[in-house]
Write a structure and sequence with these properties.
It is a single chain. This protein is an alpha+beta fold. It has 2 domains: 38 residues; 52 residues, IHF-like DNA-binding proteins (HU Protein, Chain A, Irregular). 44% of the residues lie in helices and 31% in strands.
Length: 90
C-alpha cells in the first residue's frame, strides 16, 4: 500500500473527502515526527512503540573497493509492534 492508497482507505473508513484524509494523515505523521524529536519515543497502545536509538560509530567495508571505511554515529528510529498488530498480521 502506498500513501495514495492509504489516503483513499482513510477517506473511505472515516467517511471524509480524500483532501481531508490527506490533511489528517499529514498531521498524524507530523505529530509522530515531533514526538520522536522531542521525547525520543512514541507509544500507540495496541499498535506499537516508536523509539529513537543511538547507533555507535563503527567500521565498515566498501564492497566495490574492499577498503575499510568509518561509518559515523547516528540516531535511528526503531519500531516494536504491539500485541494487536502482531495478532492481526499472524
Amino acid at each position: 500500500m502506498n500513501k495514495a492508497e492509504l489516503i483513499a482507505n482513510i477517506a473511505d473508513k472515516a467517511e471524509v473527502s480524500k483532501a481531508q484524509a490527506e490533511k489528517l494523515l499529514n498531521a498524524t505523521l507530523s505529530s509522530i515526527n515531533e514526538g520522536l524529536t522531542s521525547d525520543g519515543n512514541l507509544t500507540l497502545v495496541g499498535f506499537g512503540t516508536f523509539s529513537v536509538v543511538k547507533r555507535a560509530a563503527r567500521k565498515g567495508r566498501n564492497p566495490q573497493t574492499g577498503k575499510t571505511i568509518k561509518i559515523p554515529a547516528k540516531n535511528v528510529v526503531k519500531f516494536k509492534p504491539g500485541k494487536n498488530l502482531k495478532d492481526a498480521v499472524n
